[in-house]
Specification:
276 residues, alpha/beta
């Protein structure tokens, strides 16, 4: 089977779950029909709602629009840290306008990325501080991108004063960092990386996060869970990560699905849906 083929759609979860961070446009969606097809596949696996996340202005406009096309889709808008070199007044004004949308449930993804060198650290930190302020002003959660920048992320949050709700998208820290984040009340979102064979430290972190402080995401089309790593990812693959977390945490799949759904509903202020 080709590495470019999608993984098989897994057996439907015993309770509905939510993909807390995906990129439907990067998965190939353009039209409302495309979005519905992606969500139909996800729903067949028990992943019944998603938050589609922007990384630049064009993506932010698309995500905000897409969230109005299908009731299963919500959006988050921001400019990704690697794209902040030219983050000026016009871009800030547009992000703020879009962030106020009724179905835009978070400001993100923003933060710091010291792996790539597309934007200087100073530009990233300035943009990160602005997004923190925006999240506080409009009362929406802050969705953080943190790549090789743990200490600076925590420092900037401390200096600026964190919003009421902070989500670490695709959490990448070890058990110690997870404890520190959990102590601050931050929410940790686990992607397919927690299933990778070389992710023992991340699995230790996933074991200790309190039930009310974790989410599951795909970050699709990236980070497809094991054993399909390297193939394209889609929101339905969040079901694989839910099952993996259940094994890691020694809990039932239904309990984990219930937890990630309930936590996402609370964090993003989504309508509540019972497991039945």
């Amino acid at each position: 089977m080709s590495k470019r083929e999608l993984p098989p759609v897994p057996e439907r979860l015993p309770a509905p779950a939510i993909d807390a961070h995906t990129h439907l446009d990067a998965c190939g969606a353009v039209t409302a029909e495309d979005v519905s097809a992606l969500l139909d596949r996800a729903s067949s696996a028990g992943v019944t709602r998603v938050v589609t996340v922007a990384d630049d202005i064009a993506s932010a406009r698309w995500a905000a629009s897409a969230s109005t096309w299908d009731s299963r889709v919500f959006a988050a808008v921001a400019v990704h840290p690697t794209r902040t070199k030219d983050f000026g007044d016009a871009e800030r004004s547009e992000v703020e306008r879009l962030a106020l949308g009724d179905r835009v449930v978070a400001v993100g993804e923003t933060g710091l990325d010291y792996y790539w060198d597309y934007s200087p650290p100073e530009s990233q930190q300035d943009a990160f501080r602005w997004h923190i302020d925006l999240a506080k002003r409009i009362g929406k959660p802050l969705m953080i991108h943190d790549r090789e920048a743990h200490e600076d992320i925590l420092r900037v949050l401390r200096e600026e004063g964190a919003p009421d709700t902070v989500v670490f998208h695709c959490f990448s820290g070890d058990a110690d960092f997870a404890r520190r984040c959990a102590k601050e009340g931050y929410v940790l979102s686990f992607a397919g990386t927690v299933t990778f064979r070389n992710a023992a430290a991340l699995r230790e972190a996933a074991k200790l996060v309190p039930r009310e402080q974790y989410l599951v995401e795909t970050d699709a089309p990236f980070l497809t869970p094991h054993p399909y790593r390297g193939r394209p990812n889609e929101p339905y693959c969040a079901a694989y990560t839910v099952c993996a977390l259940a094994e890691i945490r020694e809990e039932t799949v239904e309990d984990v699905a219930d937890a990630v759904r309930g936590n996402a509903e609370r964090v993003f202020r989504l309508p509540s849906v019972t497991s039945g």
